[in-house]
Amino acid sequence: MSLTSVVIKNIGQQLIAYESANGSVGSQPFADVITIFGKLQKILSKLAGISGYNSLLRRSLMMGKTKAKSLEMIQIRSDGALELNVAHAANSHLLLEESAGDILLTQFLGLLVTFIGETLTVNLLRDVWPNVPFEKANVPSRDIG
Questions:
Q1: Could you report the per-residue pLDDT of 100-130, keeping only the tens digit for each?
Q2: 36 closest CA partner among 4, 59, 13
Q3: Sign of torsion, CA 102 104 107 111?
Q4: Can you list the alpha helix ranges (DSSP code H) found in 4-117?
């Protein structure tokens, strides 16, 4: 079974919902997505290094900006962490779109599947979020056959 863009989007939405329900982040816009990327960075930096992770994240952000203009307010620090550019937000009439995090995460997961394959991507996600029921997103089972 191939991971379609709809399945990838569903996975991203499940991760955001899980972090929203189980995380300790406040009401900061984009906080759940920042938490997700922090967790992804820890595991993916071990595989691809911080520069590889940052490259993938930069490309995802660039692609996401075509779908959510408000992603212009998001910056990637040199350590790979995402942050809201407060100065840009204060000088802009843009509000961070509610769907912006979903869009960025979907772009990132889609690129990750392209580069390392769906099996490894799903297994990495299951390692980081073992309690997320990915089967509801029609994700193939963990068995590598």
A1: 889 999 999 999 999 998 889 989 999 999 9
A2: 13
A3: negative
A4: 5-22, 31-65, 86-90, 100-116
CA distances from 34 to 99, 114, 132 (A): 14, 22, 18
**Residue 80's Cα: distance from chain center in Å?**
12
Is 10 within 8 Å of 78 (Cβ atoms)?
no
Spatial separation of the C-alpha atoms in residues 100 and 3, rounded to whole Å: 21
Query: What pLDDT digit, counting tens, does each position of 35-93 carry?
Result: 999 999 999 999 889 999 999 999 999 999 999 888 988 999 988 899 887 665 555 54
User: pTM for the complete prediction?
Assistant: 0.84
